[in-house]
Queue: 3 jobs
Job 1
Amino acid sequence: MTPPAHPGRMLFVNLPVKDLARSKAFFAELGFTFNPHFTDETAACMLVGEQAFVMLLSREKFAEFAQLPMADPTTHTLALYCFSVSSRDEVDTVGAAALKAGGSEADGAEDLGFMYSRSFYDLDGHGWQVMWMDPKAAEQGPEASEASPQSTGSPA
């Protein structure tokens, strides 16, 4: 992979939620943990990767940062959030955990051979995708993967 433009760069995605405690419990069921140093009654810092975090913020806290009105994620899509896991089986495990924890399925599994994914909506209606990518494809592009593409999901 190419080196990052800024090696020490961190990514924080701020996400408004209706019920912070329920959202924390939901994402904990998916295997995420939280940094207690940046978690309180209005915010929870969810660890996504070594330098990537999702800040679950109460709607009131989010409004302190936002200059524009908050959109309703059940009627408007402003972003889709995707995270990777280490295997195809883990995609299915995390997808099933999301549904069991109260999320809803966005569409069926998508199998492109080099990449496999499932999508779901969290408790607030934000769209998430859990995916696995063949490490060879991640480094060299999809053509480098030995897996053949096929789709089991709904057409885009």
Job 2
Amino acid sequence: MSKYQQAPRLANPARDADVVAALFKQAGFDTINNQRDLGIVDLRRVIREFSETSRDADIAVVYYAGHGIEVDGTNYLVPADAKLVSDFDIENETVSLDRVLKALEGTKRLRLVILDACRDNPFANTMKRSLASRSVGRGLAKIEPTMTDTLIAFAAKAGAVASDGDGATVRSRRRW
């Protein structure tokens, strides 16, 4: 997600997604679906379709680059059309990481989620709080997967913020 409509645009996610897609293609993955700048309806549809595609796969990988936020200990991926006027809008306008993990349940051996989304909450200063006690965090919360054979990689440690970078993509090549 780069082209946000109600939040600052991010320079690197599209470029990073291309690099990651090429890496997995080179590694021999059968299906690579590199989607860009989806609104909430399309993001939910793509996750549902991925759930069907990854069912019975040996390995399934989700790579997400864009804005991510944490509210009350739950992590959410922010689609390009999110407005998030109020914290009450979170469940309607974003996709929870739990939903992404649920989409991987049919995978046989390894489930990998790479979240290049530990960014400052771009809605933090404008989002109204429905309850004063509701926690809207910086970065993403730590999560321990409940499914076996599941790895979640974050761009920064829990609660920390990862910047969008300077636009340069670093590539490394390792021979085995």
Job 3
Amino acid sequence: MTDPRWIDEHGQEIDEDHRGLVYDVQTLIGRRRALGIFGGVALTSLLAACGAASTTAAPTATATATPTATPTPTPTATPDVPVAEIPDETAGPYPADGSNGIDVLDDSGIVRSDIRSSFGSSATVADGIPLTVALTVRDAATGAALPGRGVYLWHCDRDGNYSLYSRGLENENYLRGVQETDANGVVRFTTIYPACYMGRWPHIHFEVYESVAGAVADGPIAKTSQLALPAETNDAVYATAGYEQSVRNVSELSLQSDNVFGDDGGVFQIATMSGSVAEGFTAALTVGV
């Protein structure tokens, strides 16, 4: 509804251009106020928008975890496990350990790894296919290696004879020796492959002592046993020159019929073999005591 002040005497609305100075001033003031109000609203909206934009444009940095290297597992020693105790066996009639009169253990030179030759007054070397005997001595109850033990080892020659006992060999002491087990309980002897003589499966004798000092002083024996050589290797070796009589002897025997290994077939005494006739063999056996 039009303000009555701007109606003329004829009831017509007075044109804005003719309403006078008062109307113009009031109109100007009203417009400035309106601009101030809308300008303020616009400015507030603009600032709010800018604030929102700033928040979007500059997000709070998220902490990133620094990757760390995966630690390398520390190797742990495989725990020892019990091993079968090797059976006690006879030392036989030719031990030369003092038990039947002859004693080579207190002779200077008996502590050696290569037992192929005699020592002392003779230097005779036993002929035959090369053989390394590696015995690992362990505590049967725990499986732990037994370092520092003395091992006395002996066996017959290619003809089936024993030094110090057989006819013509009374002054020979080859194929006998004492060694000390290393940190892993291992002892090695360099020797020759023994024959098969009548009535016995191919074998090697050994005794385990608490120490080398105990062995050479005829100290107490912790274990007396024998190593059995497997049929496959016997066949290969006995087919070579010098072992002819062994072919016939071994053909009449078996582990089951042997008077030492026959009770269990030598299951805990058969050596693990490697090598060849041309390069020599290695016989390995774990000896649980």
